[in-house]
Design a protein that fits this description.
The structure holds two protein chains of two kinds. Chain A is 44% helix and 19% strand. Chain A has helices spanning 22-33, 47-56, 71-84, 100-109, 121-135; strands at 9-14, 37-40, 61-66, 91-96, 113-116. Chain B is of the alpha/beta class. Chain B has 22 helices and twelve strands. The chains are: A alpha/beta, B alpha/beta.
Amino acid sequence: MKTKTDTIRVIIAKVGLDGHDRGVKIVARALRDGGMDVVYTGLHRTAEEVVDAAVQEDVDVLGVSLLSGAHMTIFPKILQLLKQKGADDILVVGGGVMPDDEAAELKKMGVKEILLQDTPPEVIVSTIRRLVAERGPK
Amino acid sequence: MNPKQGSDPKDFATQFEAWERQELAAFLEKAPERQKEFRTMTGFPVKRVYTPLDVADIPPEDIGLPGQYPFTRGPYPTMYRGRIWTMRQIAGFGTAEDTNKRFHYLISQGQTGLSIDFDMPTLMGFDSDHPMSEGEVGREGVAIDTMADMELLFDGIDLEKISVSMTINPSAWILLAMYIAVAQKRSLDMNKLSGTIQADILKEYMAQKEFAFPIRPSVRIVRDCIAFCAKSMKRYNPINISGYHISEAGSSPLDEVAFPLCNLITYVEELQKTGLHVDEFAPRLAFFFVSQADFFEEIAKFRAVRRAYAKIMKERFGAQNPESMRLRFHTQTAAATLTKPQYVVNIVRTTLQALSAVLGGTQSLHTNGMDEAFTIPTELAMKVALRTQQVIADESGAANVVDPLGGSYYVEALTMQMERGIFDIIEEVDSRGGTIKLIEEGWFQRRIADFAYDQAMKKAKGEKVVLGVNKFVEPEEKHDIETHKYDPTTAERQIARLNRVRRERDQRKVEQLLDQLIAVANDERQNIMPVTIELVKAGASMGDIIERLKTIWGIYRETPVF
């Protein structure tokens, strides 16, 4: 059995008014089935609420799902808030529907990975494992 | 061939057994089938071939004739021989002026009805300058804050001639009030206005997750809209009871039609409590379903839901007017089946889905744009989508006969299976304490999430084929696609107009009306529509109305299940 310290802790969040939660629930379940500790914030959260929760839960990864098109507003805000709180060792991963060029831009800003629709669940699990391994212990 | 084949089931059963023993067995020995078993998307087993034996226990009157109870074969006797379905492409982005331009374009291309997509703040009842609206104003749909926006939205459009569908839920009654206010300002005849608001709040808690208030006051608003329209707007559909979003959230095709009927039952019961007879409002109830990927199952689904509805309205609610038993529905092809890889293939997917909606007898149809896995569609993508419908209507011949698949052994057997599945679910929901209780317990939400997860795993394993995603993948593919670009000045332009309305209105009058709104809201016997119409005429914004009601009703936070 894994000890608590090497279990990857993930918070999955929906930010803003976007109610599309089909993908986010699949991701949360796949990560949980992959042996991670998963918290899902539920819908309609603000960037502040989500960052506070990530810090409080002391997670490795903050996954944000967005299908509303507001990704270019919301991700920069989240990255900035994490920095302000000295929590920018939390890995930010995005998911949902967004154009390729904007996804590339978000990665330049500091989002570690963008997992778009139709990413197989096992790829999501292995990507999170890889990102956490690359970062090393917090 | 024996011309009497099928007329005597016993003879045919003998013939069928002999065929299985001889031709089939010999053939299978040489050439085994592709899979051990085949299933529909819902999971019903699919036989090798369907025969008279599979339809032997369907009472002929259950199939019946078009325009006649139980309406399996269609709501009208002549269907598309009389009038082609309404081609209703949804549109909405930016401000009211931006969307108005797209409407005029679509009408010039032969579109016959309007359908409006609103942005997330409007859908959730927030004004454009609310902090929650940041980044979302006019992005996924058009932004509407006040009646001034609505006047611009319908500029140059004859509302007595063109029907308008508004895809909106928790804040639907306010949009309806604005639409009425615009029509009254133009001195139009209220009984000539046609169209619909979606206003199907229960499926929001199940699936789409757009809500402002807790469940019970929200259902009361729906009740008020239906009761108001039944009296004052004879041609208007005050609700679009929807399976579409349930499917998009991940449900099976069966649940997609069964859950809306559970919601229907709840709404009808609420209206009956006000003393209305079902025949006073049921003829204007309308539905909205998806057309999914499993071609024949979808056709069976549409036929089955029509039959189930007819039986519910007649047997459960005592409807006497046949129009109260006649289900009419809008269809949209399945956005969740669209892919980014090889996105042009989406045209083909959409064509098949559109054809099954037509063969299933839809009253209006939206075909998705090929680029919708990227963002909202461009003008070109919308034009191809509209032309897809026009090809089916004008070139394919599919519209020239009513219910062409009626009598197909497979489709009839599947229709029966679907109908039984629907009634099993309704019975289970009744026995567990009803729809609202089960929404609160997350029962529907869990069924949806379970099916979605199962489908995602099947896709990942390649059991559910999606071309370009898990079969015939082109790893080097580059997307040289022109997509719709969001105008960054949208929010600024929108908020400027909102502020102008706020400056110019009589603030004291708005405050008085808001107090009156609270009094009406606190008295269940009153209808919320009249005071809302007065409010929007006085320049109240959607946010003014929603925020004030939240002070007495509170908000809704779901307990997520996954």
